[in-house]
Specification:
Length: about 375
């Protein structure tokens, strides 16, 4: 395939080589589609709640606007705060794996994605933000509605689902912030309010609400995909699973290889701010470029024998968490969750195996399972 393939149908140039994608994601003149782009290109939907949220969010902001929105989250989303979640991650993982083990005992198939893959990151990001455990399942359904915004082509049904989710989640997080103003806690909601009070350029109340909404949705949906994909990759490569079982130090490497081999995010788009050359092609201002992570992570120029799943692969590099200014703030937390799960799941269930045909999520932008049937067969 042409490494800079222009698609007339989709109106974009798809980049598939690792170096080209990494360069594009870091290029200061390749911008994310933002609020101005939305007003120009999505005239039918621009006034909808979902579009208002997404194209005003950190994901769809550039330059100083992006820095202003990202800075308070980066300050609050510190290595110390993430490390402090390790005990919670391990405790939640233990509880969910125990529940799954009971459901999958005696060879009975159980849906890993429903019982572990989704609940684990929902619980973790909920605790990070300050969402009570009892309310997290309700939020998982709303979050999935909001993530329809990540699809490159959205149907009217996608917009309707996303609108409903955004309205409900905005109301909830506005209430949460009011509660934290009255009674601060050791969570991200309180940390953002504290910075708002001390920062010379405070965010508005709506911006704070939308930051929490974004952290919540981004913090569980892609991680949920990663967990199922990593477990599936190991179960379908028993020789590699045996290596991980024999050497716990390989758990993190297995997560990294799973991200490379079959990651949860397929692609992301950038818009040229001025005429420039990308991957040997001269683009006019306003041209669309789509970096295809799934292809870049299997680029043979970067990863020899790219289709092989190898947990001892040396020098693994992935673009699964993007790169440049929009590199994912939650990458270290997602990796922590993946490594914790791999250790506890396969220690607890050494005879775990596929127990039916997996069902993948209906999505172009995100890779995940709706149903990953597993059973303890031994």
């Amino acid at each position: 395939m042409d490494p800079a393939h222009h698609s007339e149908e989709f109106g974009t140039r798809f980049l598939t080589r690792f170096a080209d994608c990494q360069s594009a994601l870091s290029h200061p003149d390749l911008l994310v589609p933002d609020r101005e782009w939305c007003a120009r290109e999505l005239t039918t939907w621009a006034a909808r709640p979902a579009a208002d949220f997404f194209y005003s969010s950190m994901l769809a902001a550039n330059g100083p606007d992006h820095d202003r929105l990202r800075r308070p989250v980066a300050r609050a989303f510190t290595a110390r705060r993430v490390a402090a979640l390790r005990t919670a991650v391990e405790a939640v993982t233990d509880d969910l794996v125990d529940t799954f083990a009971e459901a999958a005992s005696d060879g009975d198939p159980a849906n890993f994605q429903e019982l572990v893959g989704h609940p684990l990151p929902v619980a973790v990001v909920g605790r990070l933000i300050g969402v009570p455990d009892a309310e997290r399942q309700h939020f998982a359904a709303l979050g999935r509605g909001a993530t329809r915004l990540l699809e490159p082509i959205r149907s009217p049904e996608d917009w309707t689902r996303a609108d409903r989710a955004v309205v409900a989640l905005r109301e909830y997080f506005a209430d949460l912030l009011r509660a934290r103003r009255a009674r601060p806690a050791d969570d991200l909601a309180s940390a953002l309010l504290d910075q708002r009070a001390s920062d010379g350029h405070p965010l508005t109340g709506r911006e704070l609400v939308d930051l929490l909404l974004l952290v919540f949705v981004a913090g569980f949906e892609t991680t949920a995909g990663l967990l199922g994909l990593a477990v599936f990759a190991l179960l379908t490569h028993p020789d590699q699973l045996a290596l991980v079982r024999a050497d716990p130090a390989l758990r993190s490497a297995a997560v990294e290889e799973a991200l490379r081999w079959d990651g949860p995010v397929m692609m992301t788009e950038r818009i040229a701010a001025r005429p420039l050359e990308v991957a040997g092609a001269v683009l006019p201002a306003g041209a669309s470029v789509t970096t295809v992570f799934a292809a870049a992570n299997r680029d043979p120029l970067e990863h020899p024998d790219p289709d092989a799943f190898l947990v001892r692969r040396p020098g693994t590099k992935v673009l699964s968490f993007s790169a440049g200014a929009h590199h994912c703030l939650g990458a270290s937390l997602a990796r922590m969750e993946g490594a914790a799960l791999i250790g506890r799941l396969f220690d607890r269930l050494p005879a775990l195996a596929l127990a039916g045909e997996p069902v993948r999520r209906d999505s172009v932008a995100l890779r995940s399972f709706d149903d990953l049937p597993l059973a303890a067969v031994g």
